[in-house]
């Protein structure tokens, strides 16, 4: 069965600095999607960034980028120029490209941004 | 505006009572999902529906039931058989089951007293 592990329950970063959130996963599939979702205090889940496993190029969305290491089954999120609005829970998620299309979520990392 | 609505935002029920959580979407999405969120456990899939009149159990379906009679609606009933129903419940939808993005509703916090 697929699993997603986020080993950092909480992280802190100074405003304007860079922070990296870690995520590892386990799967026997060769093709799949990986996601980072943000959940601010409002608890509305927001998609931050998405990576397709067959693409070697790391996905980037403005200040958010990923380091996707397929062989190591690692999918970290880098937030550059951190802003107070980035403070939230961040969830890593996995989804296969076939079968039931179920999403598997990690346990989350709480990010604090210090002014 | 297109989106997913969940009502109410906060719900209180007495132990032993069934309660139904509402989820409505006007995105014309085929697939809909229910997740449960507990502190320190991320999101866990309760039920999902890939198309109208069809649904499948997720990882923690015991004590829950759903229906999908209309494309835009996917209500979740928390029954008295659910041992620990107090949690935050999130509904999501996707254009199709295979589409690689889910959109989430604002969630319902259920507290069973």
Fold and architecture overview:
The complex is a heterodimer of chains A (115) and B (113). Chain A is mostly beta strands. Chain A is 0% helix and 53% strand. Chain A has strands at 3-5, 10-14, 19-21, 24-26, 32-39, 46-52, 60-61, 64-69, 74-79, 88-96, 103-105, 109-114. Chain A is globular, with a radius of gyration of 14 Å. The model of chain A has no long low-confidence stretch (mean pLDDT 94). With 113 residues, chain B is mostly beta strands. Helices cover 0% and strands 50% of the residues of chain B. Chain B contains no helices and 11 strands. In chain B, strands 2, 4, 5, 6, 9, 10 and 11 form a 7-stranded mixed beta sheet that branches. In chain B, a hairpin with a 2-residue loop joins strand 5 and strand 6. Chain B is globular, with a radius of gyration of 13 Å. The relative contact order of chain B is 0.34. At the A-B interface, strand 6 and strand 10 of A face strand 4, strand 5 and strand 9 of B.
Q: Helicity range of the residues of chain A?
A: under 10%
Approximately what portion of the residues of chain B adopt beta-strand conformation?
A: over 45%
Strand content of chain A: over 45%
Contiguous helical run count of chain B: 0
From the alpha-carbon coordinates, what is the Rg of chain A to the nearest angstrom? 14 Å
The largest sheet of chain A is:
6 strands, mixed
Helix proportion of chain B: under 10%
Structural class of chain A: mainly beta
Average of the residue pLDDT scores of chain A: 94
- Principal-axis shape of chain A equals globular
* DSSP summary, beta strand count of chain B: 11
Along the chain, the helix and strand elements of chain B come as EEEEEEEEEEE
